[in-house]
Amino acid sequence: MSDSVPSLYGGPAGSRVRTRHLQLAKERGEKWAMLTSYDQYTAQIFDEAGIAVLLVGDSAANNVFGYESTLPVTVEEMLPLVRAVVGATNRALVVGDLPFGTYEESPEVALRTAVRFMKEARCHAVKLEGFRPAQIKMITGAGIPVMAHLGFTPQSEHQLGGYRVQGRGDDAAATLLRQAREVVEAGAFAVVLEMVPGDVAKQVTAEIGVPTVGIGAGPDTDAQVLVWQDMAGLRPASAGPTPRFVKKYADLHSVLARAAAEFAADVHDGAFPTADHTF
Fold it and tell me: I need a surface site. Which of 29, 165, 212, 251 has the fewest CB within 10 A?
C-alpha cells in the first residue's frame, strides 16, 4: 500500500477490508475511495495504492466490451472479470455488479445470480441497481453482502429518460430518502448515490446508518467512486464529453497513444528489435 494513503482500518498486510470496516469508517468520519476494475493489473495497482473497495461494474459493458450501454453485458461475461480482480488483490473488498435482467424478476432469481458471483467469481459482495428491498433482503438473508444503488441507475436509463439528475425537488428528495432507509432496513451495507443533488446526498448520508458512496452526488457522502478509465483519462475524445462529476488524475490516453506510435515507428525504421532484444 502506498505510504501516502492510510490504511482504512490498520489491519495486517494481506488482510481484507470488510464491510464492518467500512461501517467503522463512517462512524469515525473517515472517507474512503472506490474505483472500478476489470482486470488483474489495474486491480493490483489500485489495491496497492490503498483503494478500499473495487467494483467490477457492469460498466465493463462500455469500458471493456465496447457496448453502447450497460444493458447487454451478461453474467458469463462478468464472472471472469470478477475472478481476475479478486485473484489480483490482497486488501480491497471486491464487489461484483449484477447485470441487467439477472435480478429484477424476483428475489429468488436475484439470489441465484448473487450466489453465482460468490461461488464462481469469489467476490466479497454484490451490487444491484434500483429500489429492490425484497431482493436485497433475500440475498443478505443468505449471507451475501449487498451494496444498493439509488438515484440515477444506468440500467434504467431508457425509463428515466436518459442521463438525468435524480432526487431534485422536495417530493423526489423525500422519495429517495425513503428508499435509502428501506434498502438499509432490508440489509444493504452501503448505498451508492449517483447523480443526486449534493444537499440531498448530504441528508441521506446523515440520516441512514450505513456508508453512502457518491458519484456525481457532491462532497458529503462517506465515499466516492469513479470509473477508472474516466479517473485516469483513458477515454478518447470520440467517446463523448467527460461527465461533470469526473476529475481526471492522468492522461493515459495520450501516454498510450504516444507509446504505440513510437513502437510502430521503431518497427518500421528497423530500430526495434536490436541485439539487446534478441536471443
Answer: 29
